[in-house]
Amino acid sequence: MNGWLLAATAVLGGGVGATLWGVATGPLRRRVVAQNLSTALACPGLLLLAQGYDRPAYVDLALVLALLGPVGTLVFARLLTGELADDPPRAWGLTWAAAGLGAAVVLALCVAEGPSRAMLKVLLTGALLIGGNIVASHALSGGIAGVRRG
């Protein structure tokens, strides 16, 4: 087991396990935040696994998840507008912590990869992951007018 796999185990075991528990239990506002954070934690885990196992296909999977995960959160925000309007989720601390984790993983992988096409794919994945989850968190908290009005 190398350091990349150990870091992936910590991210996937601790972070995604906690978010799965959050999705399965608790009030609606915690469930939608946990659903959004599961993507924000699974993508860095997949990137770390790709480096640890030397499997570039895992980067492709992380890229697709970084693209579709926040879109799924936006669909939930749109469908649950009425229920979330009274008590909107506020998870900016968790959002920025997950964005920081994603940025740290992307930076470490870019240093390990060096200048190449693979580094560009990792950078694109990181940009989609961080930007998408910040936009989705903003929508969940009622910050996008079209989502709030329903």
UniProtKB/TrEMBL annotation:
How is this protein situated with respect to the membrane? Multi-pass membrane protein
The UniProt record lists the keyword Transmembrane helix = yes
Which residue ranges traverse the bilayer? 57-79, 91-111, 123-147
The record, for InterPro entries, names: MrpF/PhaF-like (IPR007208)
Q: Does the keyword Cell inner membrane apply?
A: no
Recorded hits in Pfam families, A to Z, give:
MrpF_PhaF
Name the UniProt key words of this record, in alphabetical order: Cell membrane, Membrane, Transmembrane, Transmembrane helix
List the molecular function annotations (GO) for this entry: monoatomic ion transmembrane transporter activity
* Cellular compartments annotated: Cell membrane
Q: Which GO terms describe its cellular component?
A: plasma membrane
The name this protein carries in UniProt is: Monovalent cation/H+ antiporter complex subunit F
- Give the species this sequence originates from: Streptomyces sp. R11
